[in-house]
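Side project, low priority. Logging it here so it doesn't get lost.
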Amino acid sequence: MAKETLAIAVDFGTTYSGVSYRPIGDNTDPEPTQLGRWPGQPAIRQSFKVPTMVAYPTGMNAHSPVLWGYQAERPPTDAYTQVRAFKPFLSPDTPQEFEGAPGKTLFDAVRDFLQGVYDHLVRELRGQGLSATLYDYLVLFTVPATFNNATVEAFKRIVKATGWGDHSIQVELTEPEAAALHTLRTQRVLLNQLGMGTGRCFVICDAGGGTVDLASYSISEMIPSIRLAQTGVVTGGVCGSILIDREFKRFIKKLMGEGAYNTLSSSKKTALVDEFIAKKEWFEDVEYHNTIALRLPADVSCPRQRGGFLSIERDQMKSFFEPSVKETCQLVVDHVHQCNQNGFQVSFVFLVGGFGTSPYLKARLASVLYQLQPGCEIITPRHAEQAVVLGCLYTHLQRLRKEEDPVSQRLCRASLGVVALKAFNPATHAPEERYVHPVTGQELALNQIMWLCKKGDPITHGAVSEIERELVRSFEKAITEEWMEQLVCSDHDIAPKRMTAGVREICVLTSDLRRCPLSEFDKKKRSTGGWCGMGRKSYYEARYTVKLLQSTADLRFEMTFKKRVRSDLLKVTWDELGDKRG
């Protein structure tokens, strides 16, 4: 008997992660199921998120199991090394170095956490009658907008190295688009006010623990249902709430003295940070909150403490927020400018994500936007912290049910191209770029870029765009080697014509046509000079097509040769994650 299908959505976050699921044939319950029980979770509350954290046993405890989530947050002994906030280090753009447990790589930390989530989910699903013997698990992961295609591919390799890899997995949805689709579902009354063709749009600001991502949309259709069109290229930065926590840790370390702070057990450090986070989430810049009282863990002494509490002045709290809030506000301002330049006025900014629920961030952002975009409302929707995982599941269900895509137009996040040879022109190419092809004799320019798509180009035919380009290679008597094409990307608003600073490699496409018979290639001739120009030399030309399939986050390739799909002749080599060890 054919299995039913269970759609599973995973939001792997920097500070917290979440999972949501639903059978695709179930239309009786309007709400999806979210995992709300986790190993080691405090019994007093339900939580739809779990701390993105692992703890590795050390010393005499080295053979104990690796802990994750709430258990890693409060290990049973101090003989564990906690590793947290490791997600941003997947991106090569993260300025800091990864600090993990001794001998453990970034790959290890991500894999071990995802494996823990997977094992727990499988147990929960089995207990609910949704086991893998009865259901096919189809899983969709989200990724930040700041992840480039090589980083997404590296993350995908880690996912496949866990139990998730036993099922059908996709990593092809950015977090801000998932949040936008959750907003579309929950804020229809507000979005109806935008109307069609009014030049008005809304911005999603997904402010999480590690990254802050932004996307903007206008209404492209209202009947029979609302559909969205992207109005600005997705932007983002690594300026989430972990920067606030980092500033607090620096403060407390300086206040106590580094020596005294380092003698604290891991559990007491965690308890101190947890107390700060609880106060941070509700902090507002109001006069009746001139001081914030933090309860100190038992037996922890600290200058300025009184009755077991540490008082922090309001201005000091604001200084903790400043690096993160300042950069977040600038990201929003820049995105609003982008919308304005594209002919749109921003009517709403929806704040989602854990950091997006901060009253202080909302107030600061309102003061910044007041002059820039009069009348713009800043809204924190219901379930703002779960917006990404819920939006991911709704998107997953729509795709599996083959329903109409709610986004009618997307914009390319970056320019993608292939390093190529182009006809040499002394007026536009440098002398050192000149190259004479040994087979055809043509004068060509080295290190030029043939752009397949450019940043901001509209994608109007579904969630996956297809771009085809014909590639031509020449050889004399036989193909003696593989042919490699370097795929590159650029975030420049105007894509450069040649390899330069700011253009980075994503992957290498290797075509191997050595197994193909010579009769399948076109025979050509070129002049070699000689008496009256009669000298002729034969050579062969290979023409094949590479198709790029691009979603909002993922990138795949197909090769066509002689009108047949021959992806067996194509190999894709991505940049490796690297051996980032603690």
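Brief comment: The chain has a mean pLDDT of 88.
Revisit when time allows.
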